[in-house]
Automatic annotation (TrEMBL):
Taxon lineage: Bacteria, Bacillati, Actinomycetota, Actinomycetes, Kitasatosporales
Xref: Pfam families: GntR
GO function term, MF aspect, one: DNA-binding transcription factor activity
Originating species: Streptomyces capoamus
InterPro entries: Tscrpt_reg_HTH_GntR, WH-like_DNA-bd_sf, WH_DNA-bd_sf
Protein name (record): GntR family transcriptional regulator
UniProt key word Transcription regulation: yes
Highest taxon of source: Bacteria
Domain HTH gntR-type: 12-80
Keywords: DNA-binding, Transcription, Transcription regulation
């Protein structure tokens, strides 16, 4: 099951953070079709956010066809995203690179900016 981490200082709306983290878990294979998302109550207890915020995020995911709400049962994953499993050799290489970046004194924001610039360069014009 996914555990949401809310960064109140990121400037990103809380419901968007939930949507993004759910999509990341789907891409990484941490969530699979048939898996149940945490209930709104479970998310509220873990993150101290408004239950309506969780429901808004889940509605957005449902609108995108990624999850489905089943009355009285919860919200379940309908389909996955991506093909990169969590134990991919590329993940191992990326972790080693992140370790080297941190050892070189780069801050998280520096690494994110560098990585985003490289992604933009290599995936320019890619609609995904």
């Amino acid at each position: 099951m996914v555990e949401y981490r809310i960064d109140r200082h990121s400037g990103v709306a809380t419901y968007v953070q939930i949507v993004q983290q759910t999509k990341q878990a789907l891409r990484m294979g941490l969530l699979r079709p048939g898996d149940r998302l945490p209930t709104a109550r479970e998310v509220v207890e873990a993150t101290a956010i408004n239950p309506n915020t969780v429901l808004k995020a889940y509605r957005e995911l449902e609108r995108e066809g990624l999850v489905e709400a089943r009355r009285g049962l919860g919200t379940f994953v309908r389909r996955s995203l991506g093909t990169g499993p969590a134990d991919s050799p590329l993940r191992t290489e990326l972790e080693a690179w992140a370790d080297r970046a941190r050892a070189a004194g780069l801050e998280r924001e520096d690494v994110a900016a560098l990585f985003t610039a490289v992604l933009d360069q290599h995936f320019q014009g890619d609609p995904t």
